[in-house]
Write a structure and sequence with these properties.
The complex is a heterodimer of chains A (195) and B (871).
Chain A: H1 12-20, H2 24-48, E1 49-50, H3 57-68, H4 76-106, H5 115-120, H6 126-145, H7 147-158, H8 163-170, H9 174-193
Chain B: H1 6-20, H2 27-34, H3 37-41, H4 44-73, E1 88-89, E2 92-100, E3 104-111, E4 119-125, H5 131-146, E5 156-161, E6 167-172, E7 177-178, H6 179-185, H7 190-209, E8 222-224, E9 230-232, H8 237-248, E10 254-255, H9 263-266, H10 273-289, H11 304-316, H12 326-339, H13 351-362, H14 374-384, H15 386-408, H16 414-432, H17 436-439, H18 443-458, H19 464-480, H20 484-500, H21 505-524, H22 528-544, H23 551-567, H24 571-586, H25 592-611, H26 615-631, H27 638-653, H28 657-675, H29 681-695, H30 699-717, H31 722-737, H32 741-759, H33 764-779, H34 783-801, H35 806-821, H36 825-843, H37 848-867
Antiparallel strand pairs in B: 1-2, 2-3, 3-4, 4-6, 5-6, 7-8, 8-9
The chains are: A mainly alpha (195), B mainly alpha (871).
């Protein structure tokens, strides 16, 4: 998933527009590009982030957005959709990194990875890995139970999106997002704590 | 446990939502009343209760996970130096670690030598890269920071690089809370918060005045102690980091804190005043609303009015501002709409401008940032200053009357037409009479007034000649206020109308006047070829007019022509045009306008002479100009500031640097008074000031001014503009002098490329570019390339300046150096002799450069004699 994005970067905006107009195929085309860019973004930022504080997933998503989308060329709806896809991609990246870490630890098939992937991988701690995988499993259950709530978790937690942005993408009111986000967290935690 | 039906799930959501707003201890009782026995049987009540009880822990879990991911992404290298309580560092003893971040650790220390009690903060940073470069950078920064002594800025005591290569700083230890915490804990009112914020802003403005940007403004760097005194921390540190990073990587660069980052920072731009202002406004937002501002929420492509509306709605929604009166929200929204504008150019120009608006808000006075309606401005202006108010009203009335009279000229007498012209002339004079008190402070308001008049002109399509005239006048006013491109737009509209009008003599003259103004604008924009062809058209018309009505227009046009020719590197032609103008003037009575024109022409002639390195002749002409300025009494205008600027440069060329610096600083202040900070005019003087610092070997001051200038110029004019390029050229020279040759070469090659594009191959600027590159190669000991570039440069200089020129003497000296390095000593001596002879001729025998060449020559001769033979 690291090489040859299927669409040129210059067309990201166009696909975003199609996606925000309801063309779900556009999502399939955009996802790999954004995934790829996020991963590179994480890698690059980590090398260059001369920050007195910290940087986080929100920062990576943001940086990637600025990289992919020429400033001022998209409207707020497109932007929100970008962040939504990025949020899903970020979830995937973190989960993949967790799985890889676990696999490596067990010594299973380390040769399957190509160099590029090794270069890009995130070094997550044991605790983070474990929590992320648990959360991912619980999230899968929530997807079955209440898909929208799961989407809200993706937006808010993995994409660092605001309540307003989440509301735009999921086409619900900000109040709904706020309520569901609280319930989803409580539900997920309850689920996790009983594992 | 979670296997509920869709219907149950809906019911659970509903109950959860209701239960969320209840106090925890009432929950179990409450849920009991909510569920019927069937629901209880299915376990809905206990499940909802569990969810509600888990909610706070769920928040902790998600925050914890987020924090852990963040931590994994920012591993702090454990190999970094860490100090335990009791360890010593320099003359300090570590008390404890007080801060920990991705890239730095902070320790509280006290003096170990027992001489006196002093607690300090030691901050150690993790850095990679060229440590030598860093040491140098740190030394420079410390030099600048040492100059900061301000009660609200934490003092920097010392800094350096530890033995293991980590940069550290020792600064004043401030015991206090971050400003946002402080406001929250003490439950400050909006007014109290604003007063606290103004303290912060003033400290930042102080730093900006010393040409230091902070670059990492955020609540954590703004502490408030128990006495309510604000202290800003970490000045200039990020600047070092930015430079370090730039040096390491050519890709996107980022320093500072993501939450408090400006939009341009995400695009890899370096520290700037505008960026500091943006961050400061983020802090303000946090203080007044209690929440962080998310720049992604701003609707894209919104204009200022849209931004104001957005912020107004946003602010109104915060509980913290619920009880504030509407005008406070409107004013705050106006401030944020400007301070948080995505485009740095649209932000407040200085921190002071922002503070000024806040202070006005506290006093209930009008804000500059507000996108005002005409009645609003008039009303507020009246309250503020009656005199200014009447001036503005009069402008408007005058414009109306003028329009009325112009229209009536078709029906009425010639006398009335003249009256109309007089009124227009009056309106124009009002703006021409440069009273900084009047024009500067109200520039924005006047701009807005003008903008409201333009649509009125658009409606005059029935009267094309009147329309053309009014476009022209409005264009001139815009130009005078510094809005060049808006002015040019109106000139072009005027010109288009003139094209269609009858070709009588008066029309032609009017048209030529528009062309003249267009030429001046082109000249101001450094579009010299365009300016040249335009001014030729105007000159032709003015010259051919026999009535004598245009003789003064002709002189004005000659001034522009002389200037343009000089800018094109044709100095002799420039002097000829200036002399033609001076010849026409000297016989005539000298009113103010004519005196001013004479000053311009003299200054121009002096500048051309200066460029040809005839410094004493130049000074003679400048003396005449300064004498005239004295005669003109206590006035300030653009011609006089130009004169001062030139005098400064000439002093500098004559090696009188203290005097030059003093003249330039006076000139800078004058320009700030006339033009304000928005105009490029004061920047141009800053350029000269930077050059003077450079000549005094104060590279830190010179470089920081130049870096600011490059950014400001690129933003205003683009990166091919001669101002931008010249500043890059200067910066390259400075790097060269500091031994940073690769950096120098990089800028020099950019300059060469742009000069070739802008001026063609034979221009003196291209000559200087070749010359500088040659010097860098010389320093890099690449003598062959050095000589090639010197020869290119020599060729161009000879073509432009003839065989005798200061610059040519320099080239000879360096040719000599190349030959010496190649151990061809007789050739070396030959070149050095040429250099000395020429320097004596051009600069005089006591000029430092002459003395330097002489010394080198003598030295070489002695050594050669010592060798006893030549090779």
């Amino acid at each position: 998933m690291t090489d040859n994005p299927q669409i040129p970067l210059s067309e990201v905006t166009t696909y975003l527009q199609e996606f925000s107009h309801g063309d779900k195929n556009a999502l399939d085309k955009l996802f790999p590009v954004i995934y790829d860019q996020l991963q590179h973004g994480a890698h690059r930022l980590r090398k260059q982030f001369f920050n007195l504080d910290t940087f986080n997933t929100t920062a990576i998503v943001h940086e990637t957005y600025l990289k992919l989308i020429q400033s001022g060329s998209t409207d707020i709806k497109n932007r929100a959709h970008f962040f939504y896809i990025a949020a899903r991609a970020m979830r995937q990246i973190l989960v993949n990194a967790s799985i890889r870490k676990k696999t490596l630890k067990r010594g299973e098939n380390p040769r399957k990875m190509n160099l590029d992937e090794v270069d890009n991988q995130l070094e997550l701690s044991d605790k983070t890995t474990e929590e992320l995988l648990l959360l991912n499993d619980a999230l899968k259950k929530l997807e079955i139970q209440d898909e929208r709530q799961a989407q809200i978790v993706e937006c808010r937690f993995f994409g660092g999106m605001s309540i307003e942005e989440t509301a735009i993408v999921l086409e619900v009111s900000p109040a709904t997002v706020k309520r569901s986000w609280s319930l989803a967290k409580a539900w997920l935690y309850t689920e996790l704590s009983e594992q | 446990m979670s296997n509920f039906s869709q219907e149950d799930w809906k019911r659970i959501s509903e109950l959860y939502e209701k239960g969320e707003s209840l106090p925890p201890r009432e929950l179990s009782e409450w849920i009991d009343t909510q569920c019927n026995p069937e629901e209880k049987r299915r376990g809905i009540d206990t499940y909802v209760l569990k969810l509600l009880e888990n909610a706070p822990r769920a928040d902790d879990f998600f925050q914890g996970l987020e924090h852990n991911i963040e931590k994994d992404l920012n591993p702090f290298d454990e190999s970094n130096p860490s100090y335990q309580p009791g360890d010593t560092f320099d003359k300090f003893r570590i008390i404890k670690e007080i801060g920990y971040g991705g890239m730095a650790r902070v320790f509280l220390c006290e003096r170990d030598d027992g001489q006196f009690e002093q607690k300090v903060a030691l901050k150690i940073m993790k850095l990679e890269g060229n440590i030598e470069f860093l040491k140098e950078k740190f030394r420079q920064e410390q030099q600048i920071l040492a100059g900061i002594n301000y009660p609200n800025i934490a003092q920097l005591f010392d800094g350096g690089i530890t033995e293991s290569g980590y940069p550290y700083i020792i600064m004043e230890y401030v015991e206090g809370l971050p400003v946002d915490e402080y406001c929250k804990r003490n439950n400050l009112s909006l007014k109290e918060k604003l007063h606290l914020f103004i303290q912060v802003g003033k400290a930042l403005q102080y730093a900006h005045n010393s040409l230091i940007v902070h670059h990492d403004i955020k609540p954590a760097n703004i502490l408030v102690n128990n006495d309510g005194v604000v202290k800003l921390l970490d000045f200039g540190i990020s600047h070092v980091l930015f430079n370090q990073e730039k040096e390491m990587s050519r890709n996107t660069s980022f320093t500072g804190t993501i939450k408090y980052a400006s939009p341009e920072q995400f695009r890899g731009k370096g520290p700037s005043v505008a960026s500091d202002i943006y961050k400061l406004a983020l802090v303000l937002f946090k203080l007044v609303t209690g929440a962080d501002f998310n720049m992604r929420e701003i609707p894209q492509e919104s204009n200022n009015a849209g931004m104001q509306k957005f912020f107004y709605q946003k602010l109104a929604a915060y509980p913290m501002l619920k009880n504030e009166p509407d005008y406070i929200l409107t004013d705050l929204a106006a401030v944020f709409s400007r301070a948080l504008a995505e485009n740095p150019d649209e932000r407040f120009i200085t921190v002071n401008a922002l503070l000024h608006d806040l202070q006005n808000m506290l006093k209930n006075e009008p804000l500059h940032s507000r996108n005002s309606t005409l009645p609003y401005i008039l009303q507020k202006s009246y309250l503020r200053n009656k005199a200014k108010f009447w001036l503005l009203v009069f402008f408007n009335i005058a414009l109306f009357i003028a329009v009325g009279f112009f229209i009536s000229q078709y029906f009425e007498t010639l006398r009335e037409k003249q009256r109309a012209e007089h009124i227009l002339a009056f309106v124009w004079d009002m703006f021409d009479a440069v009273d900084p008190e009047v024009t500067q402070g109200d520039t924005l308001t006047v701009y807005e007034l003008l903008e409201t008049s333009v649509p009125r002109i658009d409606q005059l399509a029935e009267e094309p000649d009147l329309q053309a005239e009014l476009y022209h006048i409005s264009g001139r006013i815009f130009t005078r206020l510094g809005f060049w491109s808006r002015g040019e737009e109106l000139y072009l509209k005027s010109l288009a109308l003139h094209e269609e009008l009858s070709r009588d003599m008066q029309q032609q003259i009017n048209q030529a006047r528009v062309v003249y103004d267009l030429a001046s604008t082109a000249r101001n924009n450094a579009e010299h070829n365009r300016a040249d062809s335009l001014i030729d058209i105007a000159l032709e018309v003015f010259k051919d007019n026999p009535g004598g009505e245009t003789w003064f227009d002709y002189i004005e046009a000659l001034t522009v022509k002389a200037h343009v020719m000089r800018m094109k590197g044709q100095h002799e032609a420039s002097i000829e045009y200036a002399e033609e103008g001076l010849g026409l003037l000297s016989d005539s009575p000298q009113d103010y306008d004519q005196q001013l024109q004479k000053v311009s022409l003299l200054v121009n002639k002096a500048s051309a002479l200066r460029d040809m390195s005839h410094y004493n002749d130049a000074l003679e002409n400048m003396d005449k100009a300064m004498l005239l300025i004295d005669e003109m009494g206590d006035t300030i205008n653009s011609t006089i500031t130009t004169a001062y600027g030139n005098l400064g440069i000439i002093y500098s060329r004559l090696g009188k640097h203290e005097k030059a610096l003093q003249t330039l600083e006076e000139n800078y202040e004058m320009k700030m008074r006339i033009y304000g900070e928005k105009s490029p005019q004061p920047l141009i003087t800053l350029n000269n000031i930077a050059s003077e610092y450079y000549r005094k070997n104060n590279y830190a001051a010179s470089d920081s001014i130049n870096l600011i200038l490059i950014e400001r110029y690129s933003d205003i004019f683009g990166d091919h503009h001669s101002y931008t390029v010249s500043t890059m050229f200067n910066l390259a020279n400075s790097y060269h002098s500091q031994g940073r040759f690769q950096e120098a070469l990089e800028y020099q090659q950019m300059v060469l490329e742009k000069d070739l594009e802008n001026f063609g191959e034979d221009h003196p600027y291209v000559g200087s570019s070749y010359y500088s590159i040659a010097l860098t190669f010389l320093s890099l000991e690449d003598y062959t390339r050095a000589r090639n570039f010197l020869e290119e440069s020599l060729h161009i200089y000879r073509q432009n300046y003839g065989s005798t020129h200061e610059q040519i003497s320099r080239i000879y000296a360096h040719m000599g150096e190349v030959e010496c390095r190649k151990e061809r000593y007789s050739k070396c001596i030959e070149y050095l002799e040429k250099a000395v002879d020429m320097a004596i001729e051009v600069l005089g025998d006591d000029h430092p450069l002459t003395l330097d060449y002489q010394e080198r020559l003598n030295d070489r001769k002695q050594k050669t004699a010592g060798l006893g033979k030549d090779i």
